[in-house]
């Protein structure tokens, strides 16, 4: 494998890479947002669902839950985790559903995988068309103007392949509609280490721009990025939760 490439199939490491995420708290918070701002329905779709951990929590909470992703190995693992759910390999910027939905989620900043403003607009339109009246679109996002390029988050996990250290951070050059998610994986076996780097192109927006894109389609609530309590965004933090009710 090339030293400049990330693991070809990340699906086998995805859950370890996200081991520090409190999926239960995130799912419960969005359930509360659906109760507050939505129509109370239980038909749910998770965009960029990965291996399905959020879908699992929504199923356990009584939702009819489904997921979509563009990565088939991820979907294969999601189907193993959630055999009663429906999964589809679709692009979140151009997807269709069989029936109207009450809740659509997009966790882990995956809305930025739209990669351009035009595709982000298309994603918003696709979500709006898929929702039933009063349906809610919930996601988290980062404001490009508040990105600290020197900031990374890291954690370690033990795997059969060795000790793994995962690091990730945002990078924005200060202009334009492109930012990057930079990933680093270090594997250590018997005191010998290998390192893989990858960089994912992401769409860059500030929260004012994002609200203007959403406003024609949704009533928008912007909240602090805190899954334990619901509070309005303070206008200064660089991460936020968006709860968007279909007009």
Automatic annotation (TrEMBL):
<keyword id="KW-0489">Methyltransferase</keyword>
<protein>
    <submittedName>
        <fullName>SAM-dependent methyltransferase</fullName>
    </submittedName>
</protein>
<dbReference type="Pfam" id="PF13649">
    <property type="entry name" value="Methyltransf_25"/>
</dbReference>
<feature type="domain" description="Methyltransferase">
    <location>
        <begin position="45"/>
        <end position="135"/>
    </location>
</feature>
<dbReference type="InterPro" id="IPR029063">
    <property type="entry name" value="SAM-dependent_MTases_sf"/>
</dbReference>
<dbReference type="GO" id="GO:0032259">
    <property type="term" value="P:methylation"/>
</dbReference>
<dbReference type="GO" id="GO:0008168">
    <property type="term" value="F:methyltransferase activity"/>
</dbReference>
<dbReference type="InterPro" id="IPR041698">
    <property type="entry name" value="Methyltransf_25"/>
</dbReference>
<keyword id="KW-0808">Transferase</keyword>
